[in-house]
Amino acid sequence: MADVGEVLMSVLSTIRVPKPGDRVHKDECALSFSSPESEGGLYVCMNSFLGFGSQYVDRHHARTGQRAYFHITRTRKAKEDDNNSGSGHPPKKKPTRLAIGIEGGFDVEQEQYEEDVKVVILPDRQEITSDDLATMPDVVKERVSLSMAGIMTADSVSHTLQVQQWDGEVRQESRHAADLKQLDNGVKIPPSGWRCDVCDLQENIWMNLTDGKVLCGRRYFDGSGGNNHALLHFQQTGYPLAVKLGTITPDGADVYSYDEDDMVLDSKLPEHLSHFGINMMTMEKTERTMTELEIAVNQRVGEWEVIQESGTTLRPMFGPGLTGMKNLGNSCYLNSVMQVLFTVPDFQSKSVPSLTQSPHPPAPAKLGYGLLSGEYSKPAPDPGDENGGDQIGIAPRMFKALVGRGHTEFSTNRQQDAQEFLLHFINMVERNCRSGSNPSEAFRFLVEEKIVCQQSQKAKYTQRVDYIVQLPVLMDQATNTEELHEAERRREEGDSSAPTVRAQIPFTACMAALSEPEILTDFWSSAVQAKTTATKTTRFASFPDHLVIQIKKFTFGLDWVPKKLDVSIDVPDTLDLSALRATGQQPGEELLPEVAPPPLMTPDVEVKGILGFHGNEEDDSLYSPLLSPVLDDSTVSQLCEMGFPLEACRKAVYYTGNTGIDAAMNWIMSHMDDPDFSAPLVLPGCSSGPGTTPTESLSEEHLATIVSMGFSRDQATKALRATSNVLDRAVDWIFSHLDDLESMDVSEGGRSAAESEGGRDPPPGPRVRDGQGKYELFAFVSHMGTSTMCGHYVCHIKKDQQWVIFNDQKVCASEKPPKDLGYLYFYRRVAD
Prior knowledge:
This protein is of the alpha+beta class. Helices cover 26% and strands 18% of the residues. It is globular.
């Protein structure tokens, strides 16, 4: 074996020192969820800074020729007792702020490790420690030491991706605090025993800092809280600031500004309290702060415990397909959705072979293999008594960063709507699986909409693609109306013992609302050439292999504050939708003429030569650049917010004649596979498109970085050109277009053969699977909390006739699956 110093000198040119902006993957393997704590540790390539587990580093070496790796192993230190049983440290505090990783917020668990690092040279796995470097030539010692130190001190990608500080309670100084007017009315407030001056309520009591009036706070959406007397007092007097009695301590108190409509800071609070005889330094906290109440209200009594099955002893489960996922900070919506998706055979078959066969599997394949293999479904080293069922699990940091990149909501650590994330992920799959198998076809189905003009009785049939059936919640159909009214009456009378009654809604009522005809009052009829009334009936033109049903629990109150309907729906285990099969045009039924509505034009432009009206085919004055179409900006914005490209949204609105979001969405769904889907809108008669811009020179450093990952130079060139020479975007692009890259034949000029052929005919239409409309329930996602902006998600999945609850890292056999409280329900077709 060659001398280690000589070997290191021979590979010295491939060893780089991390620069600011370099992405150092030192916490997780690029192809698996192995980490420095895993058996064998983690190997970080000292050229590309990609990390690899012990089972994948030889594969990377064989494909790239890279030999120098920075090897990191970590061993967990013994955990100290959290309850201060002789450790000398205070016990953990409960969160008092809606924050992560800061004082008063939720603690980000920082495990303590002993770390061992060294350089390993492949293929012989020769090891070099820091002590060994001291005896080597200066040029070797300096370069390798700087690279090792740079890797150690660089922020890992997982650390960068995780928002370490998220604070939902950043309070500002009130503009009224400095010059607050206080009345000399002789009012003195006792240190305890407060009651509302109007209704005698003893909880949620606020004192106005101008006149000392003691009143109850706002009523919450569920009837709890107060009776709004403090708010009514502000509306009558205009006195802006109030302090919550019971939250006053030497450190401060809850102060609310009704004028600014927010919790605020009052730098003169001791002076303002002293005016009414309150000594802030002697007060003790007896009431929960507003933030504590907000945290508590996310754990709604009954719903939280029932959905998590907190009242029963759950049996932990381990093995393939039973892997937990770590919560990265409000990522439970992602965890729940992905657990269900990787129960679907299409997603399983797409992911697992990709990881084992492709040299560079996409992030979903890595996630799927991590969930299905069982390699990480092992008990946590120190789960603790309260965390029964906790696993080592996997932390989907890279996956979350990939699917959230560029999205205003999913790129943050805020709580999100699981249904919106499911559609967002399906759209990503649709965009990136055009040339290969597409697992989202399992959910894709066609909807037939039949519109009948009431004046002419002629019909129009259209079809659109959809992935989710949305069922409305009809509160007026509740079967326990008397109980609901009685509970509401007792709450209004201030009865604190009034029970929480949940509305019982029949599932059949929700389905009936879906199938009933909808009245359209502003329908443009081509038969009468005017707007009139029409009816729209919706039916299934095809039945998918897997059906997703969303219960539309989330709505807006009269004050436009999002809230959730607390309902119980008797969702069945089996479903037969055969009666909702579309029938198409009926014998003797006349169709509405295929005539477009009047063209949309800028109103201040004189109309000349409009085709079909006053002009002819040779007169293209209609298409003058000055005669640009008027597009509905609100519809364009709504489509963009769904994740579609801007130009595609503009074309959808243009080609559907500004007839609304539904028509534009139908156009998008039927044209997603068009080669020019994202190309700029080109009006008829104009040039076919912008001229081809000269390709900018590509960064040799970026090319070298991508090539070091095992891709060819032509593939790296294609990726950089597709992403405007931005390295991070190019890496993401290349991993999401592997099917295209594996089969492409790139010429010397960098254009693939497919590109050189010019345009190709668009596909005939979206592929859908069809079969009988009989289904059985196999999974459901549940939400706990008051709105999509807060709370927690879990999912229940039926595995081998056993319901299993997936609650982030906890995976247990379910004893009482709360099927009536779900939000998203997943059905699969029953075999003939």
